[in-house]
Design goal:
This protein has four helices and no strands. The chain is mainly α and about 90 residues long. It has a domain of about 60 residues. The chain is elongated and about 55 Å long.
Length: about 90
């Protein structure tokens, strides 16, 4: 049996924290930015359903999606400040 190197578990925890926070930030930025771009307005999938397309293009729906992006970014900041990923540590 090989003994674990000291400090190695801390590096894994730190890496897990960074990966978790990074993923939350990336998803958050995507959700904040994309509803206000041309990619959102020219969505080919929704053009076949005019009522749903009109709903998705409305300001309140775009705002809600962007709000979810802000929540993701805040969760990432919370993770970093607490020093533990949202899923909890491996104990």
């Amino acid at each position: 049996m090989v003994a674990a190197l000291p400090g190695r578990g801390r590096h894994r925890e730190f890496l897990a924290l960074l990966l978790s926070a990074s993923s939350f930030v990336l998803v958050g930025l995507f959700l904040v930015i994309v509803p206000w771009t041309e990619a959102w307005t020219t969505n080919g999938v929704l053009q076949g359903v005019p009522r749903l397309h009109a709903l998705v293009l409305s300001g309140p729906v775009r705002g809600i999606v962007s709000g979810l992006g802000i929540v993701n970014i805040l969760l990432a900041l919370s993770d970093l400040l607490e020093g533990q990923p949202l899923g909890g540590g491996h104990e």
